[in-house]
């Protein structure tokens, strides 16, 4: 016997349920994408103008934690003397080319050092020495580099090099108290010495969710789930009624006297 769910009426209901599911899925997907669109990235700390630089001493004490909002593109200035003998090369790629960031400690009058990234030098070239005498440098404060930045050369590290620009690494190379960040100089700073300037990283961003679109996405999903659930309930009810009709007909047939002609009176 043909299933009651294959009747013309039910074929129309199946098609309607499929359309409802497709429309609700498309609506949920569309609103979900709108809720997490890339243009909803919000710059939390843009690169500051060096004209607005503040003394590094205003941002915190040496060795103490500095909030990421402070150690990301904040324009600062510092005064001191470079320890030219302590200058280090840190492996760093620039536009796909291997080379080194030239890093030297700027020692303030308090005896505290700030790691200064003077610029980039291609591999195989001799970087210029650090300037002598007391200088004032102005640049962008940066958080310590992690192991994902730069590149790690093969083999053992050479003398005069460091793995990355991070106080946790540099403290083993320099006998100074260090600030928990480093300074990146622009190419125009005299202390850069003609090195290729290394631009500060992209400004940090926070992700902003469009809650209205997200709520619409959830509503579309709920409508679709409700439509599918209603469709399933209707099918179960139709099948149950069909079974009941078939069972009732079979019972009446079994109770009828087999010797009595169909339709005969009692």
Summarize the structure.
The protein has 266 residues and is α+β, with helices and mostly antiparallel strands. It is 29% helix and 24% strand. The chain folds into two domains: 8-36 and 209-243; 43-207, no CATH class.
List keywords for this structure.
266 residues; alpha+beta; 2 domains; five-stranded mixed beta barrel; 29% helix; 24% strand; rod-shaped
Written overview of the protein:
The protein has two domains: 8-36 and 209-243; 43-207, no CATH class. It has 266 residues and is an alpha+beta fold. It has helices spanning 8-35, 167-170, 211-255; strands spanning 41-43, 54-55, 74-82, 88-94, 97-107, 112-122, 134-142, 177-184, 205-207. Strand 4 and strand 5 form a beta hairpin. The strands form two sheets. The protein has a five-stranded mixed beta barrel with strand order 3-5-6-8-7. Strands 1-9 form a two-stranded antiparallel ribbon. It is built from three helices and nine strands, in the order αβββββββαββα.
The CA-CA distance between the termini, in Å, is 31 Å
> What level of helicity do the residues show?
25-40%
- Major sheet, described briefly? 5 strands, mixed, barrel
The SS-based structural class is: alpha+beta
Radius of gyration, rounded? 37 Å
Strand order of the largest sheet: 3-5-6-8-7
Number of helices: 3
- Average pLDDT works out at 79
Shape: rod-shaped
* Order of H and E elements: HEEEEEEEHEEH
Write down the domain tally: 2
